[in-house]
# Entry
Amino acid sequence: GDDFVILNTRNWEERYGVDLVVKSFCKIARMIPQARLVMVGGGSLESELKQIVTSANLNERVSFLGRVDYQDLPQYYQAADLYVSASHSDGSSVSLMEALGCGLPSLVSDIPSSHEWIVPGVQGWLFKDGDLVDLSHKIITAYEIKDQLSSFRKKARVTAEKKADWTKNSQKLFYAYKLAVAR
# Structure
């Protein structure tokens, strides 16, 4: 329908900035009545996150799904309009690669590992780590161009196909291990 679905699949722990995602949603929800937030995962911040949503009177627009089976994840990525991750530190984020692989435009914190996957304005956007205002602004930006997100979707998928191929990457990794052991 007309809903604008924002998806987060990170564990509900402090280092993943999920509280920032929920707070940002609460901030933009009044400006974007079609916005919906889907939280997949679980963790120690569950009660805090639910309290933030309840305090904002947004329970009807936020779904806390808990953990879902791995094989069911693609349907959530494909049903969403925007993947958001506010992680404060990360390596190569598997959930980001999954989102890109499903052709989902992504908005992620501007940390070093994100630069490998997101070129701002191509597959999605970066926002200043920990910055609620910047995150909220970028969600609004994505919503405002929602009719143009199909080009982001295609480029996200191409990026995943090019860079997130475990068959190719594992060979490179094992070669690096062999070189390290040989030294």
Notes: Helices lie at 18-29, 46-55, 73-79, 94-101, 132-144, 149-163, 166-182. The CA atoms of residues 169 and 175 lie 10 Å apart. The chain has seven helices and six strands.
